[in-house]
Design goal:
CATH superfamily of the largest domain: Winged helix-like DNA-binding domain superfamily/Winged helix DNA-binding domain
Pfam family, one: DNA_binding_1
Catalytic activity: a 4-O-methyl-thymidine in DNA + L-cysteinyl-[protein] = a thymidine in DNA + S-methyl-L-cysteinyl-[protein]; a 6-O-methyl-2'-deoxyguanosine in DNA + L-cysteinyl-[protein] = S-methyl-L-cysteinyl-[protein] + a 2'-deoxyguanosine in DNA
Radius of gyration: 20 Å
Distance between the termini: 40 Å
Order of helices and strands: EEEHHEHHHEH
Protein name: Cysteine methyltransferase
CATH class of the largest domain: Mainly Alpha
Shape: globular
Organism: Pauljensenia hongkongensis
Strand order of the largest sheet: 1-2-3
GO molecular function, one term: methylated-DNA-[protein]-cysteine S-methyltransferase activity
Number of helices: 6
Number of strands: 5
Length: 214
């Protein structure tokens, strides 16, 4: 179901996690993690209107979802694959939610492509045939309902992946181009390469000497 009402910045509990990829702003609403953005990430704060210029004044950092997310990030950056055993909720339209749900099914240490995601989403939306025997207006309506939906475009999938509001927790960094290249990450290609190296078991140093990202 499409989420029609988004919480606003004033509704959110905010905390900052400081790690090897710079600070990450975490946002929670009602004990549920709803946002996670890297420093200077594209679409920072969307769709809630969180202003990166003021997030340093973190509030309600003791929210249980924020504490759980902070601990999860510590474990993840240490090289483990911690379970997502706390609630997440991404706010978006129907298609975005389908794409983000598909991202959660891409296992740790693996990758997929925009094309493969598009194929999987197309297959999910296919409807069974079987209205040919009906006639008249009822038959026309049934045949339209039974007709397969149009294929999902990899480009549109990329649009939704890039607007994932819960970076890292919803692993959009595991999506590659058709050629296997690393590109198109809202948090920056350097971060995407770092995360993939970490998940492949390679030892990697932090991108920032100062974890504040300055």
């Amino acid at each position: 179901m499409r989420t029609k009402t988004f919480p606003t910045s004033d509704d959110l509990a905010i905390a900052i996690h400081r790690g090897p990829l710079g600070p990450m702003t975490l946002a929670a609403h009602g004990g549920t993690l709803v946002g996670a953005w890297f420093y200077r990430q594209r679409f920072f704060g969307a769709p809630y209107g969180v202003d990166e210029a003021v997030v340093g004044f973190a509030r309600d950092a003791e929210d249980p979802a924020l504490r759980a997310a902070d601990a999860w990030l510590d474990a993840y950056y240490a090289g483990s694959n911690p379970p997502l055993d706390f609630p997440l909720r991404a706010y978006g339209n129907d298609f975005q939610l389908r794409v983000w749900d598909a991202l959660l099914r891409v296992p740790y240490g693996t990758t997929t492509s925009y094309g493969k995601l598009a194929e999987a989403l197309t297959q999910e939306s296919q409807r069974p045939q079987g209205a040919a025997a009906q006639s008249g207006n009822a038959g026309k309506r049934a045949r339209r309902a039974a007709a397969p939906s149009r294929p999902v475009s990899p480009r549109v999938v990329g649009w939704a992946v890039g607007r994932n509001p819960i970076s890292l927790f919803v692993p959009c960094h595991r999506v590659l181009s058709a050629s296997g290249g690393v590109s198109g990450y809202a948090g920056g290609v350097d971060r995407k390469e770092w995360l993939l190296a970490l998940e492949s078991g390679r030892v990697v140093a932090g991108l920032f000497g100062d974890v504040d990202g300055a």
